[in-house]
Amino acid sequence: MITALAGGVGAARFLAGLQQRVNPSEVTVVVNTADDETFLGLHVSPDIDSIIYTLAGASDIAQGWGLAGESYRTIEAAGRFGEPTWFRLGDLDIATHLYRTRRLHDGADLTTITAELAQAWGVTLNIVPMSNDAVRTIVTVDDSERRELKMQEWFVKERSQPPVHSVRFEGAAAAQPAPGVLASIDAATAVIICPSNPVISIGPILAVPSVREHLRARRETVTAVCPIIGGRPVKGPADRLMRPLGIEVSPVGIAQHYAEICGTLVLDTVDAKYAAAVEALGVRAVVTNTLMSDPGIAAELAEVVLATVPS
Ligand code: GDP
């Protein structure tokens, strides 16, 4: 059994490699849901969908999100009624959100619905939301004035431009981990923190009560893949969140940030010079190629990660 903590696309690429190397049904993926948002009255879970679409081989790889072969006629048509169109929901993607929303109205929980979606897409990894309860990332920014933005407003609508003052996870303190989350962390031979945004993808998972404690209790067999290569994120706004929160944008910053819950950090060969400083923090450093430019490299990376823990 392997348990992975995951955000969206970075994690999805890694998991696509992992599923080539281990029996997918022995992998549980605990996914961030603090980016979830309602558009057109539909419940959208961007990270869960990125993972399912990528593992199903259905994602738009060039664009980096959404489904391949999408069109955007529905969202454009909704614009006529004054609905926001800045969050680009594709016509095919909307079927997922319709289904999720309808099942939520039926009374099903997000865990059940996520399993149904994964099964429908032929994904055999066990994909679970971090919580069935609503947790929402709120970004406080400081530009002309201090404002609070929902995560998607900051990231998509305002293109991560407003300088970040702080981040909080609304609802986290009262949220319960989804069924099976803590047990999967306890029972796994290895826990992998995927290459994901440490602040807004992994941060909310760690903010769900008890998750951090359960990871700390088995820290020696928790391995993280560093999302920072050569002083910057491979994609996305991780640096624009890390810096203001006092997290150095380097493997050392990541190691410091995760040291309490993680015994090993896998960092890229271009960052080999940081290995000693990572180890000085009490985190083992493993250096390899971590830039997943194709699924073969992702599978090799997964193999290196698996080798960091006793099987
Ligand atoms: P998002 O919600 O789609 O932004 O997804 P994540 O939180 O999963 O991923 C964003 C993080 O993944 C960024 O910090 C990226 O630097 C990192 N990432 C993406 N692709 C790669 C890769 O090929 N290698 C590594 N090491 N990190 C990556």
Tags for this model:
Rossmann fold, 2 domains, binds guanosine-5'-diphosphate, alpha/beta, single chain, 311 residues
Descriptive report:
- This protein has 311 residues and is an alpha/beta fold.
- It has two domains: 1-134 and 176-311, CofD-like domains (Rossmann fold, 3-Layer(aba) Sandwich); 136-173.
- The chain is built from 13 helices and 14 strands.
- It has a seven-stranded parallel beta sheet, with helices on both faces. Strands 7-6-8 form a three-stranded antiparallel beta sheet. Strands 3-4 form a two-stranded antiparallel sheet.
- A hairpin with a 3-residue loop joins β6 (136-142) and β7 (146-150).
- α1 packs parallel to α2 (46-55), α1 packs across α13 (295-307) and α4 (91-106) packs across α5.
- The radius of gyration is 19 Å and the shape is globular.
- It starts with a strand and ends with a helix.
- The structure holds guanosine-5'-diphosphate.
Arrangement of strands in the largest sheet:
5-2-1-9-10-13-14
CATH architecture of the largest domain: 3-Layer(aba) Sandwich
Integer-rounded radius of gyration? 19 Å
Distance between the termini: 9 Å
CATH class term of the largest domain:
Alpha Beta
CATH homology group of the largest domain? CofD-like domains
Proportion of beta-strand residues: 15-25%
Give the overall silhouette. globular
Counting DSSP H or I runs of 4 or more residues, the number of helices is: 13
| DSSP helix fraction | 25-40%
Write down the domain tally. 2
* Overall average residue pLDDT: 97
- CATH fold field value of the largest domain: Rossmann fold
The total beta strand count reads 14
The helix/strand series, from N terminus to C terminus, equals EHEEEHHHHEEEHEHEHHEEEHHEHEH
Class derived from helix and strand content: alpha/beta
Bound molecules: guanosine-5'-diphosphate
Note the main sheet: 7 strands, parallel
Unreliable spans are none
